[in-house]
Structure formats: C-alpha cells, structure tokens
Amino acid sequence: MAYFEIEKRELLKGLGLMQGIAGRKTTLPILSHIYMEWKRNSLFLTGTDLETGIQEELSAQVQEEGKASISSKKIYEIVRELPEQPIQIQKKENHWIYLKCGKSVFNIAGLDPEEFPSLPTWQEKLFTKIPTQIVKEMIEKTFFAASNEESRYHLNGIFFTQQKISGKDSIRMVATDGHRLSLMERETQVVKGIEKGVILPKKGILELRKLLGDKEGNEEMGVYCNSTHAFFKVGKSLMIIRLIEGEFPEYEQVIPKNNDKRLKVGKEMIYGSLRRVATMVSERAEGIKLNLKKSSMELSSYHQDYGDAREEVDIQYEGPPIEIGFNARYLMEAIQSIDTEDIQMELKDEGSPGVIRPTSFETPSQQICIIMPMRM
Amino acid sequence: MAYFEIEKRELLKGLGLMQGIAGRKTTLPILSHIYMEWKRNSLFLTGTDLETGIQEELSAQVQEEGKASISSKKIYEIVRELPEQPIQIQKKENHWIYLKCGKSVFNIAGLDPEEFPSLPTWQEKLFTKIPTQIVKEMIEKTFFAASNEESRYHLNGIFFTQQKISGKDSIRMVATDGHRLSLMERETQVVKGIEKGVILPKKGILELRKLLGDKEGNEEMGVYCNSTHAFFKVGKSLMIIRLIEGEFPEYEQVIPKNNDKRLKVGKEMIYGSLRRVATMVSERAEGIKLNLKKSSMELSSYHQDYGDAREEVDIQYEGPPIEIGFNARYLMEAIQSIDTEDIQMELKDEGSPGVIRPTSFETPSQQICIIMPMRM
C-alpha cells in the first residue's frame, strides 16, 4: 500500500501554515481539506480557499507514491497531540488514510483527492529573487492602512507596484482606506508583472506575513505577478494570491508637497502620550486634538460620558502655533509602523492632511504615512 | 479640595482585581462603577455585581478624606497607560474627579458615591484563619465539575461544608453536574456557618480564585459564612459572595463503595493518550472506550464523519477484563486535577460509575473524582 514516513515536527509545521486558508470557507466541503501528495522524498501539502492557495514541500521518506484529501482541522488536531516520533501514513480504500505514531493508531476519513481544486499554474523561471526582509517590512508598514469596508473592495488590499528612486529600480507598496494612506518603497530588482501595479487582498497578505514570520533576515524569496495572481516562493513554500480586480485610486496626488510645518518628537514618548489621551476619545470619531506651540505640543481629547484628558509633550518645533485634529488610532498605527527613534511630522494647516515619517533611513527607501485631519 | 496620592502600581493592582466584578451587569449604571473612599492612609475600592462584592484596601497618602464613584472600565484603561509615577486624585464638583500623573491630566465623570450599593456587613471576629493554599487547592480540584446549565442553578456552584476525618476537623468542597462529581477535603480548623453546608456560586469562586492567584504558599486567609453570604479575607482584600439558595443533592450516596477493579497508571501518560484519542470522539457524546486487560488498557474512539482512533497504554492491573465508556473531557479534567505522578482508577462494571483519585497524599486529606459511565 502507498505509504510514507515523516517527522511529527515537520508535518505539524506544514499543517500549521495551512490552518488560516484551508477550511476558511465551508461552502464546498473539499475546501476544508488539505490535499496531500507524496512522491520522491517529499510530501506536498496544498490548501486553498480559491483566493489564497498555499503549497508546502516537506521532507518525507516515501515508500510508494500516493495522494489523499483529509480534513485540515482534524489532521492538525491529531498531529498536534502526537509524540515527537516518526509518523507513518498509508492510503486505504475509499479515500481513507491510516496514521500510526508511537502507540497511536488513527483511521481518518477522506475525500477523493482528484476532486481537489488545482492551484493556478506557475513558472519557476518568472520568479525574481528579492530579500525576504524587504517584503516583510513593506507589508508591516502598509497593510494596517488598508480598508476593511467590504463595499470598497478595491481598497481592501495593498497596491504593489514599481518605481524609480533616483534612477534606480525599486518596488512600492501602498494601502489606503480613504482616510489615511501608507506608502513604503525599497530599492531592489524589478519584479515581473507589477509595471502598472496590482492589488493584493489583505487576507492573502496576512497569510503571506505568517509564512514569512519565522524566516531569517538575509534569506531571499521569489516573487512575480501575472494578470490574475501574485506568486510568492518562500523556501519550500509557494503562496498564490488572487489579485483584486479594479482600479486603485490615484494616490500620488494625495501626497502633500507643501507641508512646511515640521516637527520632530521621540517615537516612544509621543506614542505613550497618545495611548493615554486616547482613553478619552469618543467611540465614534476617536478624535484627538494636537495643539502645537514652540517646542511643545498639547494632546487633548473629550468623551461625552467619561470626561477629558490632556498631556503636554516636548517636541522640536520652531514654526507658528497650529491646532489640528486627527483620529487617534490612525495616528498611533502610523507612529507604531516607524522604526526610528524619532518621528517627523509635517503639517500645513488645520484643514490639510498631515504627514508622518521616519527621521532617517539606512538604505535608499522611503516610508510615508498620510492622515486626513478632523474638524474638532 | 479632598485629594490623595497613590503609586500607579498599587492602584492598578487594586483596579485589576475589580474588573471581573464591576461592570459585569449593565442594568444598573452604578454597578459598572467602582466606589472609592480615601481616609487615613488608605484608599478603599469597592466593586459589586450584587452577587459578588470585593473591597480592597490600598496604601495611599491622604491629604483630605473624600469619596467618589467612577467607571471601573474607564479608570482601569487610564491607569494602565500611566507612567510608573505617583498619581494624584482630587474630588471636583458634580461627582467628577481630577487625576494627574506625570504630564497627564484627566477630568473623569462620576456618579454620586452615596448611591453606590453597600456591601453586606461583616464581623471581623467571625473569621477563622486557614491556610490560603488549602482553599486554593480545594477550589482547583472541584470547581471544574460544577454545572454550567442555568436551569440547574443549585449545581452551578461548589458545596462547602465540614466533616470529621478520623475524628479530626476538616473542611470539604464538592461539585457535581449530575454526570460527574469532584470532592476534596482537608484537615483544618472549623469554619463558622458551614455546619449544614452552603453553596458558593461558580462565578464568585472564580473571582476568589483570581484573588488568591498571586498569594504565597504559607499565608493565611479568613473565612466564614452566614445564612446568606460567604466572607473571605485575603490580605487587605475582602470578598463577599452571595450563597446559592437551594438544596445540594445527596451526593454521599453517589460515592461508590465497592469498586474492586483497581488500576494504577502514570498521570502524564494516560493524559497524553486521552488527548490523542479524544480528537476522534463525537461532538455530542464525547465518548471514549476503555478496554482493560491484564497490564494494558486500550483507549478508543469513533467519529461518524472523521474516523477512529485507538491507543494502548501500560497499566498496573491484575483484575478481569472490563470494557467501559466515559466522556473524554470529564476523564481529562479529573486526571488533570490530580497532582500525584500516578493516578488510581477504580471500576466495578460497565454500568457503574468510575472513581479517579491520587495514589497518595502527604497530609490527611482526600480527593476523589467520580464519573458516570456511558453506553458505547
């Protein structure tokens, strides 16, 4: 009978990465399954919700080739509890599998693996290799600004495109929900298929982020897009994300050019103050007022039922007094996305969008967060 | 103006213990508040949901006595974000308070503190001092067996009573949901008001458990009951729990006397096996089958959709073969509550309740878990 042997740790790792994708949609029973195929010295796991697909290649000792389709949740539950020992899996009649580990024996019901939907085809040669760290960083610094409103589906993702920074090739990610925008670009090789830009859905991006989660700093990953999908190859894992159709807004015209009132402030200091003053914002508007004077900024908030809060923060600022309101959560999320010790804030007047950015950057790159002001 | 100063850490600790009680019921606005009274060198905090009440005495520097009633959730949110510095609180007109810490200033709306419901009165002299560790242990080893079904309200708690073990005074806790029962008793001083037994509600017990959470091993606490409430004094905290009215079932007749088929098994070993085999129990009945032979027990389960599981465990057993079914979760919770390396299981036949208990105990005490069998 077709069977293979695999270490518990290896199988558990592979199954873990599938859990956010397989079984998310329950309309089609086989989508709650994982497709397993063992051949040569590998077990290939595939999971998909038809929008995001993932395939993992795991090391296994294969005695005879075979395939199966098994409930993603159930096999994960089982493997999680197994002792740290080799697991033997064998195909049985009627699409069942037999699983043995230590003194435990399981017979697990399956579906016909031939009915498992196949992932879009990809071509190995199209992948551009770029540092994994760059993709991870660009996601971290943009995705929080994407919209969650289902009706604005073309904003429910990250716009992924390319650009020239001082004549050099770079890639850019942008996310916006109409009230704020985050943009990050880094110099690196050109990625195929993003000349005009593509929209990566937030859900797929979050799964990709999980996949990149435990990768080391100087590894590389493969990336490319075609007209319908984005392909990411990370180690022995492949993730395929269906692109969002639609036009991403003309975001470049939103980026303020003349915000001449510049201030510098310690990131942790302003973040701590914001968290405190944000305890008194109203639930709906979440507005916080910034009152800039020479070398100091007062943050204040007011809640109809609970009361008010204010705090003064030392800043580096030489410009004229200005009073401006922002959504407290947007401010905090933008500031949190910045890695430098100080942040720079650029304002124009109380009716114009504000800019938040790092004070410096080691490599040629650019990060910018834009937040629309609020009347308070 | 009436004001006091308190360390952030001290206030946060006190407010943290209130969070599970104050604000749990939203019918009466003032119940979502904390009553604060500062006098002499203390701040007294009080919270209640009218079933469980808690009062904390915290160290504070009081300039002038005062009282206030403030939203429990909001003040906790605020204090959590404050820097580790002294907090000044001052009473203002209209039941508001003014709070200052570092550079942060808050004005917080309140209600008339005179409208805060008072806790039942207690008498210091009625408290019996018993080791905190004993109460903690008795709760841990019984509360999981209490019922969650609202209709069986007299089973939604722990029966707390006294007993003689070999002529010596002891206290006993018992919980049952009708399908299983856990009992623990420990030799200690007599506690007033529990001669006939009282029923402590699960919710209050869980709050008491939190309160006991960070207490050291050899501290003592005060306990007593009257006809309506149980009183617990732990350090500078007082917890008052309204008793459940109703008759606790005649549980003593449920305790099997003639379970002559005894087996011994390593706790971690059987627990691990149960977790694995339990992945294949049916959602509703959660049944697991135990098949005892000389020196070995086979655990097995069957799920209509997912398949089956089995595992063999080495045991110390000399009796005749026996096959018996139990709810897997009940078995696991009972085994988990036992601290000894091995557990003892006592069975009679497939239709009679099973007993699980520790194999030894250092101090005169008794712990027993009883589980009704299942037809499988």
Please write out the topology:
Two copies of one chain form a homodimer.
Chain A: E1 3-7, H1 8-18, E2 33-39, E3 42-48, E4 52-59, E5 61-62, E6 66-71, H2 72-81, E7 86-91, E8 97-101, E9 104-108, E10 110-111, E11 128-131, H3 132-140, E12 157-165, E13 168-176, E14 180-187, E15 198-201, H4 202-212, E16 220-225, E17 229-234, E18 237-242, E19 261-266, H5 267-277, E20 287-293, E21 296-303, E22 307-314, E23 322-327, H6 328-336, E24 342-347, E25 354-358, E26 365-371
Antiparallel strand pairs in A: 1-5, 1-7, 2-3, 2-6, 3-4, 4-18, 6-10, 7-8, 8-9, 11-16, 12-13, 12-15, 13-14, 14-26, 16-17, 17-18, 19-24, 20-21, 20-23, 21-22, 24-25, 25-26
Helix pairs in contact in A: 1-2, 5-6
CATH class assignment of the largest domain in chain A: Alpha Beta
Number of domains of chain A: 3
Cα radius of gyration of chain A in angstroms = 25 Å
Could you please say which CATH topology of the largest domain in chain A applies here? DNA Polymerase III, Chain A, domain 2
Can you summarize the main beta sheet of chain A? 9 strands, antiparallel
- The span between the termini of chain A is 72 Å
Could you give the order of strands across the largest sheet of chain A? 10-6-2-3-4-18-17-16-11
Strand content of chain A: 35-45%
- Residue runs with pLDDT of under 50 for 5 or more positions of chain A: none
Helix and strand composition category of chain A: alpha+beta
- Name given to the CATH architecture of the largest domain in chain A: Roll
Shape of chain A: elongated
Query: Approximately how much helix is present in the residues of chain A?
Result: 10-25%
Give the oligomer, counting copies of the same chain as homo and different chains as hetero: homodimer
Tell how many strands the DSSP assignment of chain A holds: 26
The average pLDDT score of chain A comes to 94
The largest chain-to-chain contact, stated as pair and per-chain residue counts, equals: A-B, 31 and 31 residues
